[in-house]
Design goal:
Helices cover about 30% and strands about 25% of the residues. The chain is built from five helices and six strands; from the N terminus they run E-H-E-H-E-E-H-H-E-E-H. Strands 1, 2, 3, 4, 5 and 6 form a six-stranded mixed beta sheet that branches.
Length: about 150
Amino acid sequence: MNARDDLPVLRTLRELAAVALSTPHLYVRWSRGPVADEASAESRDGLTGIRLPGLSANPLDVEPWWHDRSAELWVARRLYDYSHLPRDKGEGVRPWVLRGRVGGRGPDNEPLVRDVKPIGWIGESLIEEAQRAVEEQERAAEWGPMRRRGR
């Protein structure tokens, strides 16, 4: 990975959706950034501490079953599902987009991405727009970010 933290910032759902539609094999990762991740180039299982063979990330590729629905809503949901991570994982954790190849699956069935090429940061305004887009959906009251609850 040729990491750097001075990446362009994606600021709108339209911008992120356009990138996702034009570039295959994109993922979003919530971490302290490419430079921090470059040292290990792998994630750890939160339960066992086992090293995983790649960076834990979530795909941005629009699935065929989504048909002609809004790509903007697709990427909004991908961001919203994990928007709790900065609060849970601490200061400096934020989302960024990367390209790479899947080298395996993590314990939550998430892709473990290798040969990472950083694409850009996801700006706070984009996260806020994603939240609004999800909350505007008819069934939003039944929905929420994916989150593990402590005992």
